[in-house]
C-alpha cells in the first residue's frame, strides 16, 4: 500500500476502533431493502397507495392522507382515460381526433396549475404538488360519469338519454367539487373560501360540460 | 458518490484562489494531505471498492471497513464527504435561482381581496360614475379580472361548441383562451400606452383591473345570447349592458385625464374596442343557422352575418347534421 506512506496521523491521537460514518452505513441498507425487493412488491405498494386515495375521493372525509403522501400517478391515469374516452366525439372530419386529446390534457393540467397558483396567492398553506394531487384525484367522479355516458349513448341518443346523462354528470360534478373543496378549502383563511371554491367550480364545470356535450360519431 | 472528478468546479466556495482549475486538496477540510494526482488514483480505488461493496452483503462490507482503519476508512469517508459537498453546493445554487425567478410573492398583494369586495366591484362595474372632475379610485386587484377572463373563456367555449365552429389549425380551447387573454392583456397594454401619451393618471395594474371588470358585462351578454338566439335581444343587451360597462370605464378614465383632446382620444378608443369586441365575440363564434332564424325573425338580419368559420359552402347535409347536433346539445 504505497498510499499509506502519505497519510499523516498525529502521534498524540490513538487511532483505533472502527471508522464508520453513521450516515453512510444506514442509507445503503435502506436503499438495498427497497432496491432488492421484487418489482411486484413495488408496483403493488404504489397501486395500493393510489387505490387508497381513490377511496378517499369517493368518500370525502377530512383526512390528511391524500395531502400527506401526494403522488401524480392517479391524476395521470384519470386524465389519460378521460381524454381517450372523449376522443372522436366532435362534428366531422378526421383531424378532430388529435386536438380533442390534447385539449382535455391541457385543460386539466393547465386548469389545475392555475387553481393551485390562485390558492397559493390567496394565502393558502398547501403546497403546489399537494394541490395538483387533490385536484387530479377529484376528477375520478367525472371519469365515472364519462363511462356511464358512453354506455348510455350506446343504447341511443334521444331526449331520455340526454336527461339521464344530465343528471349523472350533474351529480358527479357536484361530488367532484365537494370532494376537492373538502380537501383544499381547509388550507385557506376562513373568510376567503369562496374565492378559492369558484375557480374549482369553474374547472369542473368545464370538464363536465365537455363530457355532457360529447356525441360519438 | 458519482464522479466528482469531473465536476471540480462545484467546489468554488471552498477554494482560496477562486477561479483556478486545480483544486488544492491540502486546503480541504479532511486534511488528507494528498495532492490532486493522488486524488485521482484514490478516487479510482474508491470506485472499485464501492462496486465490490455493492455486490457483497452490507454486513460483510462493514467488516471490511473495520479491518483496515487507515486508507480504506478514510477513502470511504472522503468519497461520501465529496458527494455530500457536491450535493450541498448544487442545492444551494438551485434554490437561489429558483427563489429569484419563480417568486410568486410579487403577485401576492394583487390577490388580497375579500369575497364581499369582489362582489361589490362586480356590481359597481355596471354603474357609471357621475363625478368626472374628481379622480375616481381604481382598485389594483387582479383576482376579479382573472376570474372574469376565465369565465369568459368558458362561456366562449360553450358558444363555439353549440354553434359547431370548426377550427382547423388549432383547438377550440386554444382559440378561446387566446382570444380572451389576448384581448385583456393586449388592449390593456395598448390603452396604457395611450394613457401614457395622453398624460392620464393610471398604472398598468389599474388598467388591467378596469378592463377586466369591464368584461363582466360581456360575460352576462354572451351567457344570455348564446343560449337564446334572438338577434334583437343581442342588440338590446349589446347596447344596454355593454354600454353601461363602457360608460363606467370611460367615466373613470375621463376623471383621471386632463384636456379635452386627450379625453376624447382615450374614451373613443376604449369605447370602440370594448363594444366591437362584444360584437366580434357574438358573430365570430356563434353560427346562426339560417333555417332556424328565418322562421323566427324574418328579414331583420344584419348584413354581415357570418354563417360558419372555415366552411366555404354550406351544403344541405352539413346543415342537417349541425341542426341535429345543436338539438342534441340543447
Automatic annotation (TrEMBL), chain A:
Membrane topology, from the record: Multi-pass membrane protein
Gene name of the encoded protein: Yipf6
Family: Belongs to the YIP1 family.
Record's keyword terms, sorted: Membrane, Transmembrane, Transmembrane helix
UniProt cross-references to PANTHER family, sorted A to Z: GOLGI MEMBRANE PROTEIN YIP1, PROTEIN YIPF6
GO cellular component entries: Golgi membrane; trans-Golgi network
Name listed for the protein in its UniProt record: Protein YIPF
GO biological process, any: endoplasmic reticulum to Golgi vesicle-mediated transport
Transmembrane segments: 70-89, 101-122, 134-156, 162-184, 196-215
Species of origin: Vireo altiloquus (Black-whiskered vireo)
Domain of life assignment: Eukaryota
Cell compartment(s), UniProt: Golgi apparatus membrane; Membrane
Domain Yip1: start-end pairs: 57-210
InterPro entries: Yip1/4-like, Yip1_dom
TrEMBL record, chain B:
Region of interest called Disordered, as start-end residue ranges on this chain: 1-67
Domain of life: Eukaryota
Annotated Acidic residues bias: 49-67
Membrane topology classification: Multi-pass membrane protein
Intracellular or extracellular location(s): Cell membrane; Cytoplasm; Golgi apparatus, cis-Golgi network membrane
Annotated Gene Ontology cellular component terms: Golgi apparatus; plasma membrane
Chief location of this protein within or outside the cell: membrane
Transmembrane segments: 142-160, 172-198, 210-229, 235-255, 264-285
GO biological process per UniProt: cell differentiation
InterPro entries: tRNA_Mod/Golgi_Maint
Entry similarity comment: Belongs to the YIP1 family.
Function: Involved in the maintenance of the Golgi structure. May play a role in hematopoiesis.
Protein's recorded name: Protein YIPF3
Natural source organism: Eulacestoma nigropectus
Gene name tied to this protein: Yipf3
Amino acid at each position: 500500500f504505497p498510499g499509506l506512506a502519505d497519510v499523516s496521523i498525529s502521534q498524540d491521537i490513538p487511532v483505533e476502533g472502527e471508522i464508520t460514518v453513521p450516515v453512510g452505513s444506514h442509507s445503503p441498507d435502506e436503499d438495498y431493502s427497497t432496491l432488492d425487493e421484487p418489482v411486484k412488491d413495488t408496483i403493488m405498494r404504489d397501486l395500493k397507495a393510489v387505490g387508497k386515495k381513490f377511496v378517499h375521493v369517493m368518500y370525502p372525509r377530512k383526512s390528511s392522507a391524500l395531502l400527506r403522501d401526494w403522488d401524480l400517478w392517479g391524476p395521470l391515469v384519470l386524465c389519460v382515460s378521460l381524454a381517450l374516452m372523449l376522443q372522436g366525439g366532435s362534428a366531422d372530419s378526421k383531424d378532430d381526433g388529435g386536438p380533442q386529446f390534447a385539449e382535455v390534457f391541457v385543460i386539466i393540467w393547465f386548469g389545475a396549475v392555475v387553481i393551485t397558483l390562485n390558492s397559493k396567492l390567496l394565502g393558502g398553506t398547501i403546497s403546489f404538488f399537494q394541490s395538483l394531487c387533490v385536484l387530479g384525484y377529484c376528477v375520478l367522479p367525472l371519469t365515472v360519469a364519462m363511462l356511464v355516458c358512453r354506455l348510455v349513448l350506446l343504447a341511443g341518443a334521444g331526449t331520455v338519454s340526454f336527461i339521464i346523462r344530465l343528471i349523472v354528470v350533474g351529480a358527479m360534478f357536484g361530488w367532484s367539487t365537494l370532494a376537492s373543496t373538502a380537501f383544499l378549502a381547509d388550507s385557506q383563511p376562513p373568510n376567503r373560501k369562496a374565492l378559492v371554491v369558484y375557480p374549482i367550480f369553474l374547472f369542473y364545470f368545464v370538464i363536465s360540460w365537455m363530457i355532457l356535450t360529447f356525441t360519438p360519431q | 458518490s458519482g464522479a466528482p472528478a469531473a465536476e471540480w468546479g462545484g467546489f468554488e466556495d471552498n477554494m482560496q484562489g477562486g477561479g483556478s482549475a486545480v483544486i488544492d486538496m491540502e486546503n480541504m477540510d479532511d486534511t488528507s494531505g494528498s495532492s490532486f494526482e493522488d486524488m485521482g488514483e484514490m478516487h479510482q480505488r474508491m470506485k472499485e471498492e464501492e462496486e465490490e461493496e455493492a455486490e457483497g452483503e452490507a454486513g460483510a462490507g462493514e467488516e471490511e471497513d473495520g479491518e483496515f482503519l487507515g486508507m480504506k476508512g478514510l477513502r470511504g469517508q472522503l468519497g461520501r464527504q465529496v458527494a455530500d459537498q457536491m450535493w450541498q453546493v448544487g442545492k444551494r445554487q438551485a434554490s437561489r435561482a429558483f427563489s429569484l425567478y419563480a417568486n410568486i410573492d410579487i403577485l401576492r398583494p394583487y390577490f388580497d381581496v375579500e369575497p364581499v369586495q369582489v362582489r361589490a366591484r362586480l356590481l359597481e362595474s355596471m354603474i357609471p360614475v357621475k363625478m368626472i372632475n374628481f379622480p375616481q379610485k381604481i382598485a389594483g386587484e387582479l383576482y376579479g379580472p382573472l376570474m372574469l377572463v376565465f369565465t369568459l373563456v368558458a362561456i366562449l367555449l360553450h358558444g363555439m361548441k353549440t354553434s359547431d365552429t370548426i377550427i382547423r389549425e388549432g383547438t377550440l380551447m386554444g382559440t378561446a383562451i387566446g382570444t380572451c387573454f389576448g384581448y385583456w392583456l393586449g388592449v390593456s397594454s395598448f390603452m396604457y400606452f395611450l394613457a401614457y401619451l395622453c398624460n392620464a393618471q393610471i398604472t398598468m395594474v389599474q388598467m388591467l383591473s378596469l378592463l377586466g371588470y369591464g368584461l363582466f358585462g360581456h360575460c352576462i351578454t354572451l351567457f344570455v345570447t348564446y343560449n337564446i338566439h334572438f338577434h334583437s335581444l343581442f342588440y338590446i343587451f349589446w347596447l344596454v349592458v355593454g354600454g353601461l360597462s363602457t360608460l363606467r370605464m370611460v367615466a373613470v378614465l375621463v376623471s383621471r385625464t386632463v384636456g379635452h383632446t386627450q379625453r376624447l382620444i382615450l374614451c373613443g378608443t376604449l369605447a370602440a374596442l370594448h363594444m366591437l369586441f362584444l360584437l366580434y365575440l357574438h358573430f365570430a363564434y356563434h353560427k346562426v343557422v339560417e333555417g332556424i332564424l328565418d322562421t323566427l325573425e324574418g328579414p331583420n338580419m344584419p348584413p354581415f352575418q357570418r354563417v360558419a368559420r372555415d366552411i366555404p359552402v354550406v351544403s344541405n347535409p352539413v346543415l342537417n347534421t349541425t341542426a341535429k347536433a345543436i338539438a342534441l346539445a340543447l
